[in-house]
Write a structure and sequence with these properties.
244 residues, six-stranded parallel sheet, 13 helices, 6 strands
């Protein structure tokens, strides 16, 4: 975690996030790139100085990282995640209220289509102008998606490809979109929404047990909890103490 302090200073709170939405309402002069970090993605973003510098806004996705951040840093924050337990509702409702065009890029083929249908059922009037899966591995595929995004002139782009691919993609969009847009990463949100529109059980959201539900349902989450998270705690504390 070479640039932990630079990353920590950039992590915002809910008031900061609300201001991101207001930028769209007032009229953007350039695209705004926003991502969310958790114990898995924090060291990836923190070790990539060009990526860290280019991102406009960063928020804390997860109670563990939020708690550790508030112990070691003066800029106190709260958990903000791009899911329906947090800011995803704000973004999609904002899109409806302001007649904005939304684009989805992420998840596996077939899943992004189902997620789009679920969002439109949840938010009548939501204009999903474009959607495409997140596996842009073939030559020219990413360029083709960017061309199509320019054709539909999306106002909001929600991208779920995993870190750092999703961050790299929205930063490419920031440079290449003709129509300035709000650009959000969302991790597994699109895929989760294809499984169930509101992925988390109400009791899970109420008691902050999202990680338990995800660990039960997904093997890769269990792997991260057992391997990546303990490593993150040790490295984070060491980096914070070293930086003081």
């Amino acid at each position: 975690m070479k640039h932990c302090k630079a990353l920590d200073k950039k992590i915002g709170n809910k008031l900061s996030f609300d201001q991101v939405l207001l930028k769209q309402r007032r009229g953007l002069t350039q695209s705004v790139a926003t991502t969310f970090v958790n114990p898995f993605s924090y060291p990836i973003v923190g070790d990539d100085e060009p990526l860290l510098t280019a991102l406009d806004h960063i928020y804390s996705d997860g109670a563990l990282h939020t708690s550790l951040h508030n112990i070691f840093n003066t800029n106190q924050i709260e958990r903000l995640s791009f899911d329906f337990s947090s800011v995803a509702h704000d973004v999609l409702q904002f899109a409806v209220e302001n007649s904005l065009k939304v684009a989805l890029v992420g998840a596996k083929p077939g899943l992004v289509e189902q997620a789009a249908k679920n969002y439109q059922q949840m938010y009548p009037g939501l204009n999903i102008a474009y959607h495409h899966h997140g596996y842009l591995n073939e030559p020219g595929m990413e360029d083709g998606v960017i061309d199509e995004l320019n054709t539909v002139s999306a106002d909001i782009v929600i991208c779920g490809m995993g870190t750092p691919r999703q961050e790299q993609f929205i930063l490419t969009l920031k440079q290449r979109l003709n129509n300035p847009a709000l650009l959000f990463t969302c991790g597994g949100f699109i895929e989760q929404s294809a499984i169930k529109a509101d992925y988390y059980h109400p009791l899970v959201k109420r008691f902050g047990l999202r990680w338990v539900q995800r660990a039960i349902m997904h093997k890769h989450v269990r792997t991260r909890l057992m391997q990546d998270y303990p490593k993150f705690i040790c490295n984070y504390i060491f980096s914070q103490l070293k930086a003081k």
